[in-house]
Amino acid sequence: MKDVFAKLGQDFFSTVLFLVLYLITGDVVLATCVAIAGAVAQFIRARIKGEKLDVMTYASLALVIVLGGATLLTNDPRFVLAKPSIGHFAIGAIMLRKGWMLRYLPPIVSETIPEYVTIAGYAWAALMFALGAGTIGVAMSGDMKLWAFYVSVVLMGAKVAAFGLQYVVFRILVGRRLRAAAVSVP
Prior knowledge:
This protein is elongated. The chain is built from 9 helices and no strands. It is mostly helical.
């Protein structure tokens, strides 16, 4: 679990850096420059340490530089504000693969209710697409405080709520299925 959070921290480092610096200073240009510098420094550090870099690392760096550069050239923060949506769309596309979720679940769930796991996987993909679209909508408004709230509270809150709902539903479904199987065994 520690590895998962460390990886997420690496993937969203520049976005978090941008958000924190903007909230402290209110300066979009400064926050964008520091986010770009942070992403480049993170990349260089990983290369020096000989860490294996995956496609997401290169994609994230490219997005920070391109969208951050567009923000700096146009003095329009909406470019950098839209960056998290691209990640959500990419993750949503990956989640469209049938059975992607099976490896993350305990065997009792994947063996007892596999059809519901597939449905839940598609529901997660739909959630990622909806959150990505919401991010673009909020970014297009240009309201930095609304964007900061959306990215830090709504995006995380929606995922936590979905995880909690999934947990409860899976527990109920597994319990029902196991009770029905116990009753049908003579």
